[in-house]
Structures are given as C-alpha cells and as structure tokens.
Amino acid sequence: MRNLDKYKGVIPAFYACYDENGEVSPQRVEALTRYFVEKGVKGVYVNGSSGECIYQSVEDKKRILEHVMEAAKGQLTVIAHVACNNTKDSMELAGHAERCGVDAIAAIPPIYFRLPEHAIAQYWNDISAAAPNTDFVIYNIPQLAGVALTMGLFAEMRKNPRVIGVKNSSMPVQDIQMFKAAAGDDYIIFNGPDEQFISGRVIGAQGAIGGTYGAMPELFLKLDALVRANELEEARKLQYAVDAIIYKMCSAHGNMYAVIKEILKINEGLDLGGVRKPLPALVDADRTIVEEAARMIRDAKANYL
Fold it and tell me: Which of 61, 62, 167, 261 is labelled catalytic?
C-alpha cells in the first residue's frame, strides 16, 4: 500500500548553500534544514533546480543530501533529485540517496540530445533500479529540460511500481488534470509553478513543490490551508500577493535565487551565500529590489496570517 500522505502538503525546493569561497557549506545546509523544520513545512526537495543542480558535482550533491538528512532527523519528508545528464552518475546518486534514507528520488529527463521516449523511460527505470526500495517521482519541466512528459510516456512509467507521481512544473494547469485523471488516487501530482499554486491544487494536485516557498513558507502554508478549507476567494487574494512578490524577485539583474538568499538574510537571519556561476550574482542596483521584496513578504504576513 502506497503511503502518499507524507507527500501531501507544502514542500519547498532546497537552496544551494555556499561558504565564502563558493563551496558547499555543511553548516549552512543544516541551518536551512532546521529553518524548514521550524516553519512546519511537509518536506524538502533537495538538489533540484532551486538547488542549482546543473552546476553541482556528484560529490556536492551527496554532501548536501547527507547534511540535510543529518539536520532533518526524520522530521521532514525528503525527496532527492538525482538526475545528472548521464545514467551512471544518476544511478550513483540514486543509490546514495536510498542509503541516506530519503523518502523518494526524482529525476528530470536527460537534456541536450532529444532522446526517443523509450530511451527516456529506460533512463528513469535504470535510475529507479539503483534505489529499489525508494519511491520515484517524475520531474516534468519541459520549458527547461526541452522534453515534455507525454501521456504515453507517463503510462509506460506507471508500469514501474516504484513510480508514485509527477512533479509537474509545466505551465498549463491542464497537464495536472490530465495526469491526475490518467493515474487516479494511487499517484500524487505535485504542482510546480508557484505562481499558480491554488490553480494546481484546485484542479487536482495533492502536494506542491516550489522554488520560492523557502523565502515565504508561511504564505504558502496559508495558501494550502485556504484551499483545504475551500476559502478560495481569500486564497485568490493571497495568491495575487505572492505572485507580486515573485515578479519583484524576478526583476533583478542577479538570478532570482541570489535575490531569495538575500531576502532570507534580511528577514530570517539566514546566510546561505551566493549563487554559483554562470548564474549571475547580485549587483549594487539590485539592493532596492531585494529590500522591497523582503518588505512585501513581511507585509503579506501581516495582512494574511
């Protein structure tokens, strides 16, 4: 019997945590993990897009996950994204994640070469086979991966008993409905785009994973509670406020995750370092944007919590 309840709720995507030299900081990884425990979120999604996974080495990813698990102490559902752009490294990370005791592993499809669907299925199944006792989540983010999860590929992947659902980060909300209709209640579909949290939840997503949740977890927890209570008008107002914050964070010269890390420093006293090149760092002109976004978060908390 699948235990899907541990995935139902707000699951922030975990940010890369660096020291002053731009290397992974175990201390900052553990501090961010404890922050999420204290905020009361359901879990964390480690080493995904928000974790700058494309720019992390295999050893970086292992180190990050080990320290997340050390600090979480079983208080968070942990989903580890293990995809690299080759099967060998992905399988190595999958096996490591299982040994660490994660709840699930996840993977995007291989990028760059446009592979046929049977090759993508083989890639995912090979990764899953390296963690034979661990749930597997398909990560659908076609706007970045260049490959979309089709209904046919999803049907093929459901033959794998370890596949429990999809982290759907495609922009059409209809995709969530289609995956949910095809898979039923034996699978979980996660809403990915933060800007449409309530839309995804209302149409059938039972959980949500997002890259901006970490900057304002209380607001997304409130959104989730409003959806569960069917208070959709209030949820819509809060979604608009959250979206305005996201748009502000995306307006800087520096990468959005660089903005978020500065916001966490201002609002929460968390220092997670910067972002790894080639992601653009903040410039002096971004300071006003960062401070405005931080203030908007504080104001939204005051207004809606």
Answer: 167
The reported pLDDT for the residue numbered 146 is 87
Domain 5-227 CATH class label:
alpha beta
CA–CA distance, 17 with 66 (Å, rounded to integer): 13
139 catalytic per annotation? yes
Q: Are 47 and 53 in contact (CB under 8 A)?
A: yes
- Strands in 207-210's sheet, in edge-to-edge order, are 10-12, 207-210, 188-191, 163-168, 135-140, 104-107, 77-81, 43-46
* Selected catalytic residue, list 15, 123, 139, 187: 139
Domains of the chain by residue range: 5-227
Select from 14, 44, 82, 16 the least CA-distant residue to 207. Answer: 44
Q: Which amino acid is at 229?
A: A
Give 196-234 pLDDT, tens digit per residue: 999 999 999 999 999 999 999 999 999 999 999 999 999
Q: Is 80 exceeded by the pLDDT of residue 1?
A: no
Chain-centre distance for alpha carbon 278: 21
Q: What gap in Å lies between CA 7 and CA 61, rounded to an integer?
A: 22
